[in-house]
């Protein structure tokens, strides 16, 4: 089984993916890390050099062409589900989990904004407004997930139990 974690930046996709993969004793694939390794530059640098449209194309190609192990946990980028047919493809390819958080919870988690191309130079108030606007756009996609769970203070075992319930 492939488990795809989706959600807004800062919701804990990379961390929860590692924790869940650890419990399942399976590999973790971080799409952003795959892109960084393939391109030899950070996501921020790729964004700056090539723009968002090129990044979304690359992200789509990596998502769909990666040779996934039979069982694995996949951490996706925050915007990945919102482009092309990525969300549909993930739903057809495995279990999708939306790690949901409220906008104030996300603000409290997003400290190092300089590393995130979309957040550079924002104060907390600007960030809150940005998150509220982006979530309005993205929830249409995120909510297509097979499992929606609040990920603030989410224990890995609880996440595993919810995934197992879903699988029946």
Sheet-strand content, in percent, reads 5-15%
Q: Provide the spatial order of strands within the biggest beta sheet.
A: 2-3-1-4-5
Number of helices: 7
Tell me the distance between the termini.
Answer: 13 Å
Order of helices and strands: EHEHHEHEHHEH
Low-confidence segments, ≥5 residues, pLDDT <50? none
Please, what is the average pLDDT?
95
Characterize the main sheet.
5 strands, parallel
Q: State the secondary-structure class.
A: alpha/beta
Please explain how this structure is put together:
Helices cover 54% and strands 13% of the residues. It is of the alpha/beta class. A five-stranded parallel β-sheet has the order 2-3-1-4-5. The longest helix has 23 residues. The chain is built from seven helices and five strands, in the order βαβααβαβααβα.
List keywords for this structure.
168 residues, 7 helices, single chain, 5-stranded parallel sheet, 54% helix, alpha/beta
Provide a brief overview of the structure.
By secondary structure, the protein is α/β, with parallel strands linked by helices.
Which helices and strands occur, and which strands form pairs?
Blueprint: E1 2-6, H1 13-24, E2 28-30, H2 31-39, H3 43-65, E3 72-75, H4 86-93, E4 95-100, H5 103-109, H6 124-142, E5 147-150, H7 156-167
Parallel strand pairs: 1-3, 1-4, 2-3, 4-5
Helix pairs in contact: 1-7, 2-3, 5-6
